């Protein structure tokens, strides 16, 4: 029997997608959507635009497109905006990022020229390798948050929007240790007024968004809304949140391969991962404290997939190392190597070598788009707080207290699709399938 489904508000009117950080990922996502909606390209890599979903039994042959099955905002109804410390418009920013060709960008130049970054909330303390002139000044962090809330409200009004979502596509901030001011909303707000160091720029954006009832997804690895105070605010204001760190190049590969090895009970002695990349993200990650934020999210996937405590003979001694090196000549075209030392029957060793010559922002752009559209869906469906079903898109999924994150990409996909089926009152798919043989 199908469940009844969840009431979902129709996506009427326009959806604003605001991006703190209009760099490589942000500009590639915006330019891509403009190219797609003007008929120049296909939205490859985006589930919301290209994937189907099977409904009912295998014999029923019901597999609509996801976008026809659940009420998602249409690409034509999206208005983009954002903040950046560099005051250049999105056309200029995309040219600087060198991800898309000038030929492609010129096809949608007027639309990209029109998107100019608002003044950012930025403190070099949290991104040591960067600085730029387009910044807000305020008497304290609460004042800065209020200025961001004004930006959000004005953007909505000026563009006649029905609703807004925010996806952080700004630089990775430094790793910060737990601080008791994160524990409650009250202590957090007090700390904002006192300009406490444990409150990073991205936390100010997240606070402003949640205060304004705007869903927020974090594409970077640093701590933002995955602290008790902001989770409390999300719950209190019934706002959807998701994070963190877009799952794109190497970790995407890891979460494809590792579940396969584990499924066949093949052991792993060592997994050495190294990356070279030459974009601004690479430059920021070259700084040890920003790398530390990334290292934490990159390392966690294997730990959770292999469960070494439950499988000590296979994964108990796993040596896992991740390196990122800034190498300017290759720009956004990252090279990610993995050397994997595995062992099989009777302990005999084997090796797997992966050399992924990827384009970071080409992989990240559809992820950012899907997250914006799905978190808007979640909000309209009344789903507030952590959206674990969006783990599919993240290197380090945030989950409810007491839960461990699910990293296996196929389980994540099943969870995502089953959530959509649940929302629409369709039977969940368990893949049991005994009924076909009755
Ligand atoms: N490209 C990928 O595949 C990928 C994958 C996972 C995560 N990420 C994360 O996504 C983020 C963006 O990556 P990118 O390649 O676009 O980097 P980028 O350096 O090209 O762009 C980041 C932009 O954010 C701006 N910025 C920094 N702090 C800001 C602030 N406080 N407010 C407003 N703007 C700010 C910078 O000026 C820059 O223009 C990074 O955190 C990166 O680690 C990227």
Descriptive account of the structure:
- The longest helix has 21 residues, at 360-380.
- The chain starts with 14 loop residues before the first strand and ends in a 15-residue tail after the last helix.
- The strands form 2 sheets. A 6-stranded parallel beta sheet has the order 2-1-3-4-5-10, with helices on both faces. A 4-stranded mixed beta sheet has the order 7-6-8-9.
- It folds into 2 domains: 15-246 and 362-423, NAD(P)-binding Rossmann-like Domain (Rossmann fold, 3-Layer(aba) Sandwich), CATH 3.40.50; 250-357, Dihydrodipicolinate Reductase, domain 2.
- 38% of the residues lie in helices and 15% in strands.
- The chain has 16 helices and 10 strands.
- The chain has helices at residues 24-37, 47-50, 66-69, 90-97, 102-107, 109-113, 141-158, 185-193, 201-211, 228-236, 250-263, 280-285, 288-306, 312-315, 360-380, 409-423, and strands at 15-20, 78-83, 163-168, 216-218, 240-243, 267-277, 319-326, 335-343, 349-357, 385-386.
- With 438 residues, the chain is of the alpha/beta class.
